[in-house]
């Protein structure tokens, strides 16, 4: 066993002890365990990094939710106002349709009245004409 291997062994043994692994470590598995411990440390650091990133993202999300709350309330008010205006528009359209039907009916009635007035005048003139002419013998 060389000086380099002994240094690796002591360093690795110290790291394993810090991590709570107190099992025996043979020199045959030294490089494999070293690689596995390195991967474990790297994975642990990545996990910490992504946990912090996740926490920051959650905090940002919470801040954004607080920031959009006034917009949600304003949106609810605008939806109610839009619905009210839509109902009002529908009522005005119905009223306009009723007015148009009334105008159409009035025009038809005026035409009928004009026809009846003309017919009445014709009938009155016919009656006057017959009264003024002597009866034929």
From TrEMBL:
Where is it located?
Cytoplasm, Cytoskeleton, Microtubule organizing center, Centrosome, Centriole
Tell me, in one coarse class, where this protein mainly resides.
cytoplasm
* Any one annotated GO CC term: centriole
In terms of InterPro entries, this protein maps to: Centriole_BasalBody_StrucProt (IPR051877)
Keywords attached to this Swiss-Prot or TrEMBL record, sorted alphabetically, are: Cytoplasm, Cytoskeleton
The organism's place on the tree of life at top rank: Eukaryota
Return the similarity comment: Belongs to the CEP135/TSGA10 family.
Name of the molecule in the record: Centrosomal protein of 135 kDa
């Amino acid at each position: 066993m060389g000086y380099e291997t002994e240094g690796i062994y002591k360093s690795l043994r110290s790291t394993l002890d810090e991590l709570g692994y107190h099992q025996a470590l043979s020199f045959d598995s030294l490089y494999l365990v070293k690689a596995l411990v390195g991967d474990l440390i790297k994975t642990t650091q990545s996990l910490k990094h992504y946990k912090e990133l996740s926490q920051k993202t959650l905090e940002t999300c919470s801040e954004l939710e607080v920031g959009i709350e006034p917009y949600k309330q304003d949106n609810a008010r605008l939806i109610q106002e839009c619905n009210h205006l839509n109902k009002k528009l529908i009522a005005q359209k119905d009223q306009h349709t009723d007015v148009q039907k009334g105008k159409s009916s009035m025009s038809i009635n005026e035409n009928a009245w004009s026809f009846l007035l003309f017919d009445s005048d014709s009938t009155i003139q016919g009656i006057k004409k017959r009264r003024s002419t002597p009866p034929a013998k």
